[in-house]
Write a structure and sequence with these properties.
Lipocalin, Lipid/polyisoprenoid-bd_YceI, TTHA0802/YceI-like_sf, signal
């Protein structure tokens, strides 16, 4: 089940807009401070994620088609007790977000737009100059019974652009010779939960067919080695 992330975080649909509210008006439950957003150092985890063996993919859609790409895994790790992951983090390098479709100049233009490196469009999507990483913090897992596609339900908190929301999804956890593999088939995330509003029908009227779907999909394949076995 090596289906990988398919989000317009972690993440990216096609064209979102970040009409970000004043931070003082946001619920503290939906935000984390810079210190809270830092995961434990890899040495504090039993299993350390190997970035070059791990993959995150995303897909976003609109009436005229879809776009897809990848976001590099920057690091993280997991602690395990019995059959369950008890805690962990997956860190994504949003500055290296890639667009795989379309290719060429159109792909580069979309990539710059999503990263927020296109002049005047910094706030449309991820504004990676300000928010360079996204993080999923695992808080608990539970074993699934009689499920052909997954072994566990993973619960945690996803942070994009300093907005944190609870996200749960099914995944397959497999122990391997030197560590473990955690993979998830594509699951949906609502981009507007992270104040990414560009061409969202929830916030803009009279868009007709010129809108971007609020939900995007992500999937992933993460390899983690037990500390000392890399």
């Amino acid at each position: 089940m090596k289906q990988l992330f398919v989000i317009g975080i972690l993440f990216l649909g096609i064209a979102f807009h970040s009409c970000r509210p004043n931070a003082q008006n946001e619920s503290s439950a939906n935000r984390i401070s810079a210190s809270d957003n830092k995961s434990e150092p890899p040495s504090q985890y039993q299993y350390q994620i190997i970035p070059n063996l791990s993959t995150v993919k995303w897909i976003g859609s609109k009436p005229t088609g879809t776009h897809n790409g990848t976001v590099p895994v920057a690091g993280g790790g997991m602690n395990v007790e019995g059959d369950n992951i008890t805690s962990g983090s997956i860190q994504l390098d949003m500055t290296q977000l890639k667009v795989l479709d379309p290719t060429g100049d159109m792909g580069q233009s979309l990539e710059d737009h999503l990263r927020g490196t296109a002049p005047g469009k910094e706030e449309d999507f991820f504004n990676t100059g300000k928010y360079s990483t996204a993080t999923y913090m695992i808080t608990s897992t539970s074993k699934l019974a009689n499920d052909q596609e997954a072994t566990h339900m993973i619960n945690g908190n996803l942070t994009i652009k300093d907005i944190t929301k609870p996200i749960s999804f099914k995944a397959r956890i497999e122990m391997i010779d030197k560590g473990m593999v955690v993979s998830a088939a594509p699951f949906s995330i609502d981009r507007t939960d992270f104040d990414i509003r560009f061409k969202s029908k929830k916030f803009f009227d009279n868009l007709k067919d010129d809108y971007v779907n609020d939900e995007f999909q992500i999937g992933f394949y993460v390899v983690a080695h037990k500390n000392g076995n890399q």
